[in-house]
Amino acid sequence: MNIIDDLGKGLGPFLLSVLISSLGRKTSFNLSLIGWLVGGTICFFMWCTLQNDELKIQEIIKSNLNDLNNNHEQKNNGGKVQIASNESYDN
């Protein structure tokens, strides 16, 4: 996120000055505001889907751990894969 923020802080004023020189001050600031609104709208919709996306990823991880446990149990007669929280995940 820092790189994007730094690029915005550096490139934003430069691009605005280029727009001002070619389109005029009022039009350039209006275009900049429209760009900010579009970016904010995109961020808002990403925020709306974030919780569901995280739940889907957690389900995928649990499914993969189940598969690992099943394969490990077949090879080692009952072994478990450890989760980072030091809890074992059983089927």
Write a short abstract of this structure.
The protein has 91 residues and is mainly alpha-helical. It has helices at 2-23, 25-76. α1 (2-23) packs antiparallel against α2 (25-76).
Rg result = 25 Å
User: What's the order of the H and E elements?
Assistant: HH
| Main sheet record | none
Helix content: over 70%
Question: What is the domain tally?
Answer: 1
Molecular shape? elongated
Low-confidence stretches: none
Q: Determine the structural class based on helices, strands and strand pairing.
A: mainly alpha
Distance between the termini: 38 Å
Estimated share of beta-strand residues: under 5%
Keywords, please?
91 residues, 2 helices, 81% helix, 0% strand, mainly alpha
Explain this structure to me?
The chain has 91 residues and is mainly α. It has one domain (2-76). 81% of the residues lie in helices and 0% in strands. The protein has helices at residues 2-23, 25-76. Helix 1 (2-23) packs antiparallel against helix 2 (25-76).
